[in-house]
Amino acid sequence: MPPRSRRSQPRQPGRLNEAARLADRLQRVGYTKRDIARIINRDPSLVSQFYTRNKGAAFVTALREVLTAIETGGITDLPELAAIAARHTHRRTTASGARARVRGKAVLITPTGSGTGRVGAQAIASGSARLRPLIAEAARLGLRLAFTVRLAKTAYVHPSGSRADSPGIRREVTQRADHTEERSYGSAQTGGFDAADFARRVDAAGGDVTAAIHKWLVETERIHTDAQIVHLEIRTWRPTSSR
Hints:
Blueprint lengths: L17 H11 L4 H7 L4 H9 L7 H12 L6 H9 L28 E5 L1 H5 L6 H9 L3 E9 L20 E3 L4 E6 L7 E2 H10 L4 H11 L11 E7 L6
């Protein structure tokens, strides 16, 4: 019988890399993989890859500093820990010393202020972390923001096209065959929303973009409290008066 491939063999606990060992220590003091992902401003899938694909070397220093802050400084707040990690998280470099290219669709903002980020059900369940840098950068640049959500039709408080739901953009409703419905909130024509306000909301939610958007929709009486977002898109642009 041919030997089993190395890929099919589970990684032994004693062979965990340093990032995984640090992540284990964080979990022992009460933080989840999702929390760790928020702290390093990455998707939770990357934290899982510390264990399965030997990734995470770029975050070792940040994770060590976070553990020190928790164990010796008594800091437990996720936004504070994220700020500490950010000071020790740096882009990878190539062999020539240049900054390595990374996938960054959610943080691409053009010189005109136009930017778009989308996430589906899996990323939404983990807080839509990929959208947080887009919102933060839009806030830093003083941009406007709009978003589209998809939920079950019954999750919305108002019927399709209601002016109480999204005044001025009643056409921005898409019916789906799976009994969900997409609705857009804000547009360049209606002025949209202040990105800085939503950045503050995301920070208040511990970096959870999904929770921040959900809370806004509930507070403004657009969706029911038990509604679940299954698709989320963020769009940004520069206000006309700033051009």
